[in-house]
Amino acid sequence: MVNIPQLLAQELNLKPFQVQSALELMAEGATIPFIARYRKERTGEMNETQLRELAERHAYLTELEERKAAILSAIASLGKLTEELQAKITACLQKTELEDLYLPYRPKRRTRATAAREKGLEPLAEWIKSLNVKNAPIVPLESEAVKYISEEKGVKSKEEALKGASDILAEEIAEKAELRAYIREYLLNEGVFVSRVKDDYPEGTTKFEMYRNYQIRVEDIAPHNLLALYRGEAEGILDFDLSFDEGVVLSYLESQEIRTKNPSLRKFYHDLLKDGWTRLMKESLISAVRNEKKSFADVESIKTFEANLRDLLLSSPAGMRPTLAIDPGFRTGCKVAVLSQTGQFLAYQAIFPHQSAAARSQAAQTVKQLLEKYRIELIAIGNGTAGRETDEFISEVLQTVERKPIKVMVNESGASIYSASQVAIAEFPELDITVRGAISIGRRLQDPLAELVKIDPKSIGVGQYQHDVDQKLLKQKLEETVESCVNYVGVDLNTASQELLGYVSGITTTIANNIVAYRNENGVFKNRRQLLKVAKLGPKAFEQAAGFLRIRGGENPLDNTAVHPESYKIVEAIAKDLNVSLTQISQVASKLKGTNLKKYVTETVGEPTLRDIIGELEKPGRDPRAEFKYATFREDIKEISDLKSGMELEGIVTNVANFGAFVDIGVHQDGLVHISQLADRFVDDPKKFVKVGQIVKVRVLEIDVQRKRIGLSMKLNK
């Protein structure tokens, strides 16, 4: 069998000790964020990306080896396992190749070849095959076929006998792994995807117009185009096929399988190859190619979703400050929630600024009272229906107050889903669904990561064809992304929700619930060691989680850093040598400059970890996310009808796709910056130029009010 660790080291360009150590740590239950952050010495400083790639490929190869063992056992039980076949199966590195090798031996439904064998025609097939060589004697096939006519076995004529033999040979050839591999590669390299809109849909009536008469080489198709074709096919709007030259395929099969010079035998083989191709190979190979390209498109689209989600989760937090959160509305009014500097819900009020002058005046008085009473520093306004109108109203109110909070339009994608979720109901059982929505809008301004982890990532609105891709893989990748972001930022142990805690390294949903229960019963945690008093949180979970949990104002200043408790003694020794108390740990980094770190190296803590510790001590408790910034929309631009070609506006990137970026410019409809308009130079991947949450300057290129489409450009040169 394959030496998996050795193969992984070769494939991923890693040293054998790195692979071995990382796999051992994973087998021991260590999480990837923990290994990447706190076990750098053991893995040779492998990062999260390398570790996840290693884990995925290891899982694939392990499954492959298990499948090989099952296949070898199955073929051996049939008495058909040769040394050559065993060697081929053992050397396989891809599941597709392995299944091709197993195909001739796989249990199958009754086929025409099965029926022919039951009629005793296999010896005839073998005899014909023996004649398919260069210098074989020319013998009429009918002379041998007549010997197999049998009323008892249901072979009524020599023609039926030859047809049965042909069926046996066609199936045998159709199941040859090397032939299938070659044709599959030909279809991938030379095939063309073609689509057309069905006649039931007149021109201009579907969202798939660009695929009305569409064709593109299989190897050139972009992931989003392929997923669109699949969606159009699933919705019954598109006919979607794979086109190629079947003559090339048949010529290849004949070149590989016809060796005789006998004209009649060549004709016999020509016919059986055409039958075998059409009946047994064509559809399955087309399906295999489609599936392979679909898998590739899924992976690429999920990568885009991952990158967008990471950028959104790591968006700059406005900070934990008193916040007025508004879920706008026309007829039903605006739901206003007041949040404390810790995100605690304090008060609620409904206002109706869009119904009448008197109601607008009353709403203004209410807002001013709330601003003053709760000393509001942030105002979060949802960007949905009535968002811009409410933003204008709040601007009017702020002109009449002395102390002006920061006002921000907040993307409310997913807020309504959170509002109706069991999480929201459990947190605010007595509140109306719209009030919960306002609270969520405010909290995602204070700290996007802490709030957005409560929402299914698919509902946040930063994906691309997320309902069309492999749902199991999507769920896995998005959960990994959330886990990575949460552990990168760190979590305040005394304010974090159970949903946020559940993504911390080593903490299960049960343990997260137990942490919150312990906190509710005993008050805030004063030190990290108290975690060991939490039910079901044992030494292993503590090891995995402690470094990612922060305690502000606790007994030990190191508890508010990413320094792991296992390294506290080293920090204490360093502080003692420098004559610095732990309450002044921020001074350690500057005083250590020029000091030989090797002095503090131990068996388990090397220079990589020491460098991380020093970096952490420079700014204890810092948030690694970027400084908070927000977009300012033009006051006179509220609807798509207000736009004019050539306008230059500020906006915020809401989604990035393979074909470009969507930008919110404050008109209830995101505009598209096509990949060709992202920069003055060639752009191969939009993710290299823009990211979700980024504030950008754009120029309006075209406006289609009827179809609600806005074309934008980020090019400097007009």
From TrEMBL:
Cross-referenced InterPro entries: HHH_9 (IPR041692), NA-bd_OB-fold (IPR012340), Ribos_protein_bS1-like (IPR050437), RNaseH-like_sf (IPR012337), RuvA_2-like (IPR010994), S1_domain (IPR003029), S1_Tex (IPR044146), Tex-like_central_region (IPR055179)
Domain S1 motif: 646-715
Entry's Gene Ontology BP terms: nucleobase-containing compound metabolic process; translation
PANTHER family according to UniProt: 30S RIBOSOMAL PROTEIN S1, S1 RNA-BINDING DOMAIN-CONTAINING PROTEIN 1
GO molecular function: mRNA binding; structural constituent of ribosome
Highest taxon in the source lineage: Bacteria
Organism: Chroococcidiopsis cubana SAG 39.79
Protein name: RNA-binding protein
One Pfam family it belongs to: Tex_N
Entry GO CC: cytoplasm
